[in-house]
Amino acid sequence: MTMDLMGFILVALIAIATAIGMLYSRNAVYAALFLVLNFVSVAIFYLMLGAPFVALSQVTVYAGAIMVLFLFVIMLLGAEKLPPAEVLPWQRPLAFVLALLLFIEGIYWLSVKAGTTAQIASPDATIGTMDAVRSMSMMLFQEYLLPFEVTSILLLIAMIGAIVLTKRVDKKGGQA
Amino acid sequence: MIPLSWYLFLSAALFCIGLYGVLARKNAIAILLGVELMLNAVNINLVAFWRYLDPTQMGGQVFAIIVFAVAAAEVAVGLSLVISIYRTRGTVVADELDMMKW
Fold it and tell me: Model pTM?
């Protein structure tokens, strides 16, 4: 019981700290590496919630593929260092105030609805891991088959879009 | 068992940190990193509600998987936009991309 809470607090601190580290690292490579650590800690949350398939997809898709793509583009463009020029002086404080307002609002409504969340705070802790994966895939390929197929079309469109956007076109209109 | 509201607090905090990153950073790639963080916070919410409301209904996990695919598509298109902007303008600083200013 207390071990659960201790583990949650530890991983939550790691997640928050790496997210803040991502914000304040001026080098974009460090920001991306902090975000990898954040994604891994979020995957640990999925494991604690009893969703191993989502956790492993998180590690492979997010921390693996997506962040490698980010790092590749950062290295390709050489955009890891930016000049510390402050063009809009009010941008940072305004962003801080807006994000803080959203956070306070969320905390407020969570605490107002605390009675409701307390009622649903006791799930039965007896779900078999393999059963969960099996029933999730049954639902994905039966009930949510249409969204699944639409997702594949979305990925195809994104792939075509990425190729078209990055294709180099020379001045005369021909394609090199 | 950890109360549900803790997960909600955590994901609210991560979402707001990501929002601050999107609003305050100047590097276009860092803005995309903030968007990724926000998508992750939403995913924590989806999985936590799945676990605490009805673990026999797998809708929450399915939604989380679909959000993964959407995030991958978003990153691919976003990063290729950044590359294309860098080719035409020679910069990825969001403040210098003011072509649509009057």
Answer: 0.87
